[in-house]
Amino acid sequence: MTTRTKDVPTSGVAPSLANNLFFAWFAGSLASCGAVTFTNPVEVVKTRLQLQGELAKATPGAERAYHNVAQAFWAIGKNEGLRGLQKGLGPGYMYQIMLNGTRLGFYEPAKNALYKGVTGSAANGQAPIMALNVAAGGLCGVAGAALGSPFFLVKTRMQSASKFAAVGHQHNYTSSVDGLRRIWQAGGIRGLYRGMDAAMMRAGAGSSVQLATYDHFKSYISRKLAHRGLTDNSAYTHFLASMGTGFFVCLAMNPFDVVSTRMYNQKTVKGQGALYRNPLQCFYKTVASEGVLSLYKGFLAHYLRLGPHTILMFVFVEQIKALGAQYF
Length: 328
Known about the structure:
Layout: H1 15-18, H2 21-51, H3 69-85, H4 89-119, H5 130-160, H6 176-192, H7 196-224, H8 235-265, E1 268-269, E2 272-273, H9 279-290, H10 299-327
Antiparallel strand pairs: 1-2
Helix pairs in contact: 2-3, 2-4, 2-10, 4-5, 5-6, 5-7, 7-8, 8-9, 8-10
C-alpha cells in the first residue's frame, strides 16, 4: 500500500497555519528574500551576458567584455567591487516579495480551486494531477510577475549599468527610488509597467514548471527513500527536490528570461521601446540577428542563479513553516 505524502505548502504545518494565506505569503516572501541575498551576484552576471551583443551578428574573434560566468564574475568584482555584484538587490527584494509571496502564498488555494472545479474535491483528498498543478503554478506566477513588474524593471536596469564594460542601454539610476521616480516622470503608470507582458510570460513558464515539479520530486523522493531518512519534512529531501526542479525551470524559462531582460532594459523613445514593440518582436529580432541559441544566452549563469535560489527558497520556506507550526 502506498502512503501519500503532503504537498509543498502544507508539509509539517499546523492546520490553522496551513490555511492561513497571510502566513503562506509571509513565509514565501521571507524565504525568497533570504535566497536572493545569496544569488543576486549571479543574477548581475546573467543580465550582462544576456545583453552582451544585443541584435549584433556573431563575428568570430570579436572582442567581448564578458566571456563566461567565471570571468564575468571576476571582472565585475575586480572593477566594481561587492557593490557591483550586488547591484539591484533593493528592488530585487521588493520583486521577490511581490512574485514569490504571491506564488507560494496563493499556490495551494489556486490548486484546490482547480481540483474542485475539475474533479469535485480538494487536492489534498486525491493523488496529484500534474496538469492542474502546472496550471495553478502558472496562474500564480503570472499574477506575481504583474505585481512585481516595476521592481524587476528597475532591477534589470540597475544591474546592466557599468562604467568599465557597458552592455545594453545605460540608464544610470542612482538608487531604486531614483529609478522609479524617473520612470514615472517619463512615462507614468505605463512606463512603470513597460515589459510586464514579457515578465508574465517568463514567470508563467517558470512557475508552471517549478511549483509542479517540486511537488512531484518531493513526493517521489519521500516515497522511495523514506527508509533512509528522506521523509516529507527532511531538509535533505527539500534540497534534492530543489536541485531537480531548478534544472527544468531553467530549461523552460531561459528564452523568456532573455526576452524579458531585453524588453526591460531597452531605451524608450516617445513612450515606445526603441528596439522592440512587444515580446514576440523581441523573440523574432533576437533569433534573426543572433541565431536560435541566443535565446539560451546566460544559461549557465541562469542555472547557477536559479538552482541555488530554488534550493534556498524552498528549504527556507519549509523551515519557516516548520517553525510556525512549532511556535504558533
